[in-house]
Write a structure and sequence with these properties.
It is a single chain. By secondary structure, the protein is of the alpha/beta class. The protein folds into three domains: 53 residues, 434 Repressor (Amino-terminal Domain); 130 residues, Response regulator (Rossmann fold); 137 residues, 3-Layer(aba) Sandwich (Rossmann fold), CATH 3.40.50. It is 41% helix and 14% strand. It contains twelve helices and twelve strands. Strands 2-1-3-4-5-11 form a six-stranded parallel beta sheet, covered by helices on one side. Helix 9 links the parallel strand 6 and strand 7. The termini are far apart.
């Protein structure tokens, strides 16, 4: 029976290099990777994951934790979450790691003890920061390798990968203003870090346009289309016909609001222009197609994995905010 040492000897490389090559780790040059993999295939060699874990004291698993509030109706089936999770899963597979998916919706865990000390995972990727979740700050005082998808304050004690939420929201609302909107509602839960940045961008655009800020137009809304639909019916209809624009902090919320308006005969965009944030797949195919801010989930997911693996190798990594792009479509096109 061939061992990893035998494969390494035949390939004339070290055992650690052979192990990386079998996991297709790009640290090893492509010629060496192919040579090792061909030898392994020739001798029908497969890595024993249990033996490898015992030898390296690693699980070769990364835990991805989705931060939900217990009261939130948001689920993993959320289109934006599915999109970025898919990128992360593909990238981890390419790097030779499995993905352990978990949520914080019902369990209040000591993440270091549960994942790292118990050898369930070698590092953590945390999606979202919740309502300024203190567990992330606690984790930053440990030596646990982890990265967060969310909003960066510029003074974080941990590594954040995210989008330029504030400037993206400002661009979307400024676009609505340019279409003639003067009374624009904000829908989203600004108690969450990312949404708070989008809320600030909304305020920036109104202030630059010389338009008044009015709390009656600011609705705390969950991340779902259902809550966008319900809150629009309950709180926005009384503001018609003065209300002439909506900026929603996510496409799901925007689609719910649009459905509610259309069911009551409000014409979009002629009477009411709408913009969202995320550019989920459905936003281009609804009627009218939704104006939105596109996040770079592909590079975002890859950066989360790359920065985490660098941390696990003992390297210092910096937070990074990715640029966003306004996509103007029919839901706001008055001109």
């Amino acid at each position: 029976m061939m061992t990893l040492a035998d494969i390494a000897a035949l390939a004339e490389v070290s055992e650690s290099t052979a192990s990386r090559a079998l996991r297709d780790n790009p640290v090893v040059n492509i010629e060496t990777r192919l040579k090792v993999q061909q030898i392994a295939q020739q001798y029908q060699f497969n890595v024993n994951p249990t033996a490898r874990s015992l030898r390296t004291q690693k699980s070769y698993t990364i835990a991805v934790i989705i931060l939900f509030d217990a009261k939130s109706q948001q689920a993993i089936s959320d289109p934006f979450l599915l999109e970025i999770l898919g990128v992360i899963a593909d990238e981890l597979t390419h790097k030779g790691y499995d993905m352990l998916l978990s949520t914080s919706k019902t369990k209040d865990k000591d993440w270091k003890t549960y994942y790292l000390d118990a050898k369930r995972a070698d590092g953590l990727i945390i999606i979202g920061q919740g309502e300024h979740d203190q567990r992330i700050e606690q984790l930053s005082h440990s030596k646990v390798p982890f990265v967060v998808w969310g909003a960066s304050s510029g003074h974080d004690s941990f590594t954040v990968v995210g989008s330029q939420n504030r400037s993206g929201a400002e661009a979307a609302v400024s676009h609505l203003v340019a279409q003639g909107c003067k009374h624009i509602a904000f829908l989203g839960d600004y108690r969450h870090n990312e949404i708070e940045q989008r809320y600030l961008g909304y305020q920036d655009a109104l202030q630059k346009a010389g338009l008044a800020l009015d709390q009656a137009y600011e609705l705390i809304t969950d991340f779902t289309a259902q809550d966008g639909y319900v809150k629009t019916q309950q709180q926005l209809f009384p503001l018609l016909p003065k209300l002439d624009g909506i900026f929603a902090a996510s496409d799901a919320i925007a689609l719910g609001a649009m459905k509610a308006m259309q069911e009551h005969g409000v014409q979009v965009p002629q009477q009411l222009a709408i913009a969202g944030f995320d550019d989920i797949a459905m936003s281009a195919y609804c009627s009218p197609a939704l104006t939105t801010v596109k996040q770079d989930t592909i590079n975002g997911g890859k950066l989360l994995v790359s920065k985490l693996l660098q941390q696990m190798d003992g390297k210092q990594v910096e937070s990074e905010l990715l640029p966003v792009r306004l996509l103007t479509r029919q839901s706001s096109a008055r001109c």
